[in-house]
Amino acid sequence: MIARFIKDTLGVTIGVILTAIGLDAFLVPAKIAAGGLSGVATILYHLFNLPVGLMMLLMNAPLFIWSFLRLGSRYTVNSIYGTVALSLFIDLLAPYIPLLTEDLLLACLYGGVLMGIGLGMVFRFNGTTGGTELLAAIIRTYMGVNIGQLLFIIDGVVVIWAGFVFRSAELAMYALIAIFLTAWIIDLVIEGFSSDKAFIIITRRADTISQAIIKDLDRSATAWKAQGMYSGTEQEVLISVVGRSQVTRLKDIVKREDPLAFVILANVHEVLGEGFKELETQS
Questions:
Q1: Contact (CB, 8 A) for 86 and 21
Q2: Which residue range(s) make up the domain with 233?
Q3: How confident is the model at residue 281 (pLDDT cuts 50, 70, 90)?
Q4: Same structural domain, 36 and 137
Q5: 236 and 133 co-located in one domain
Q6: Quick check: is 71 in a domain?
Q7: What is the DSSP string of 68-106?
Q8: How far apart are the first and last CA of the chain?
Q9: Domain shared by 226 and 205, yes or no
Q10: How many contiguous H segments (helices) and E segments (strands) does the chain have?
């Protein structure tokens, strides 16, 4: 329990530091308000020279109270550390981080990537940073709508507002790129960067193909019975996960053993279990 707590706290801390660097080094100086409370704080910083971290913390404070009343103490407490730590690191690191680029595209790309990695780590280690995610969760208790849709609407409003404030449609478009890039990187961090491939093989020769997989590739396979609805014939479905370097060899095995097999090849974000990454357990 203690080891898990220390691991999660360390992971969340590294995540918020990376997020803070992404904001301080790239997005805030470039006036790229990439949605959420950080976007609002970026606008306030350039309008009134107000500290970004402090503004984020002040805007989150009423959300914490509202969250406590609507969602309960457990959800709220889990959000506090990441939110406070992010706000502190943004303002503490800002004076020491130099302006690395004046190119808007570079600022958008590097800022979005750093924020994506940072927030992905925060979420992966069971933390949150409050903000619009917390607001969307609260609003959902009243309206019952999809959180993802709410976040998209909120981020869109912030981006449009920034475009009017800074009188630049270009900055708004860069902000949208940063938002989508951040979301994509978050998913990669949470789901994993695995390059493994999943084969779904519909065949009449499941036994010979599976034995070849075990013998030639040192992998395994799982089979279950199926019936083709068009032909009405009974077949078997094999599923096997292999490394990227083994894809061509498995294709050759299927072609050799059953040229009429139907094969589906899919990317796999993360594989847990024997022969792959160890399945972590909560303790």
A1: no
A2: 197-267
A3: low
A4: yes
A5: no
A6: yes
A7: HHHH-HHHHHHHHHHHHHHHHHHHHHGGG-------HHH
A8: 5
A9: yes
A10: 10, 4
